[in-house]
Amino acid sequence: MTTSTSHITHWIAGRAWTGTAERHGDVYDPATGRVTGRVDFAGPDVVDEAVDAATAAFGGWRDASVARRTGVLFAFRELLHARRDELAALIVSEHGKVHSDALGEVARGLEVVEYACGIPQLARGAYTEQASTDIDVYSLRQPLGPVAIVSPFNFPAMVPMWFFPLAIATGNTVIVKPSEKDPSAANFLAALWREAGLPDGVFNVVHGDRAAVDRLLEHPGVKAVSFVGSTPVARSVYEAGTRHGKRVQALGGAKNHMLVLPDADLDLAADAAVNAGYGAAGERCMAVSVLVAVDPVGDDLVARIKQRIATLTVGPGSAPGSAMGPLVTGAHRDKVTGYLDSGTADGAVLVADGRKHAVDGDPGGFWLGPTLFDHVRPGMSVYDDEIFGPVLSVVRVPSYDAGLELINANPYGNGTALFTCDGGAARRFQREVEVGMVGINVPIPVPVAYYSFGGWKSSLFGDAHAYGEDGVRFFTRGKAVTQRWPDPSHAGLNLGFPTNS
Length: 501
Ligand code: NAD
Known about the structure:
The chain is α/β, with parallel strands linked by helices. The chain has two domains: about 5-250, Aldehyde Dehydrogenase, Chain A, domain 1 (3-Layer(aba) Sandwich); about 255-490, 3-Layer(aba) Sandwich (Aldehyde Dehydrogenase, Chain A, domain 2), CATH 3.40.309.10. It is about 40% helix and about 20% strand. Helix 1 crosses helix 8 and helix 3 (about 85-95) crosses helix 4. Nicotinamide-adenine-dinucleotide binds near residues 155, 210, 253 and 254. Its EC number is 1.2.1.27. Keywords: NAD, Oxidoreductase. Pfam families: Aldedh. This is methylmalonate-semialdehyde dehydrogenase (CoA acylating).
């Protein structure tokens, strides 16, 4: 057993911070429960240092040619691809998810880097010749300045990569504030940027908690904030950031429903519910947490899911045989476990109890096996709250309409899925459901990099979704130029309002 812990600190202006932090946080290996690292927490002074570095780097990076910026992005893409396994192992060690899942997270981040490599095409303006006589009009998209990215624990590499490739590609400079629970991935990415040739100060990392975020939100040098986390924090970040005049996109929590119609392929639906409900121990914002079974498929579906749950190996993310790892911290595991008691007390039927699931790992790890509740109803805490753990709730409904009504009444609107063999029902669902990301026989419909990611209602505050065209727009400001190169015929006074002629 090793007792040494790593020291994780900020990355500012191309190097590790050398100061002495007043506050720190513990970083755990969730599979053993042991503290493996100590992360420095930034106060306002360290945030200011990072913003100063980002501000100093902005002029040079904004003026770097598109060809130069693209060259750095391609180099970063190559390095990230070559070292994806190392990054995945780092994620596993602090987050706990299984290695293949961590590799998947890196792959989905890489997609956005690859999309951003196309920035010459993506950020092009438009040009209208002869909009008026001898007058041409064209548009430009220009960067904002230093931008902040505040990310959650559940995707320590992918979520920052939803934002920074496009922020950097469009000429901004970046300050990332990762989750204090798994901070090392951001430092790994910072070192790759440096190796890729990104000028110092374009990509900075400050670690910490609310104190660091609050300073980023009020700092006049920060022009935009991309936040991902729980809904109460997303809402307050949106309000504080916009109050300080910043552009803000704040993605919040979720309660994703999967609606299963009686004509669905029930084996496919059961596989999907298990994969999307328990993958990453349910710690995904696109996890399926509510299965809505339209009568009469409930009993059959529950039986198939129960059967599959029994085959899942729960163990360390680093073990090749593990299907599901531990939860991120002991406190989170205890909170999630509390729902097993409250669900039962509220009258839901506990079909599979995760506390009793065999674990192939260190007893000190933050384990909770897959849990299934049946006969769940709105008003029960297992339905109303975002649990963010391996707890799947089955709600029975009499019809498609009742299922749709349930989903649309939910305050969250991140992702949803419909399982059916009926194309007409699927088409109706995609039109009628009030959710930002919809899967038809696809349980975790995370859009590819050239579409945008974002929920509706309490799952997103602001109007810009992440990455895709929305990402390009979010990190740039539009400018329209109306141009005339006068010849002598334009001389003369005319105080009238200009009109087209
Ligand atoms: P969290 O809200 O606790 O923390 C997110 C970030 O905000 C972290 O960097 C944290 O340090 C910081 N933070 C925490 N409290 C703060 C406060 N009071 N003021 C300012 N900053 C604060 O979220 P988490 O537990 O790290 O992540 C899980 C949550 O993120 C879940 O609710 C999940 O649904 C959500 N999430 C949403 C999406 C999405 O795309 N909508 C994606 C991933 C995760």
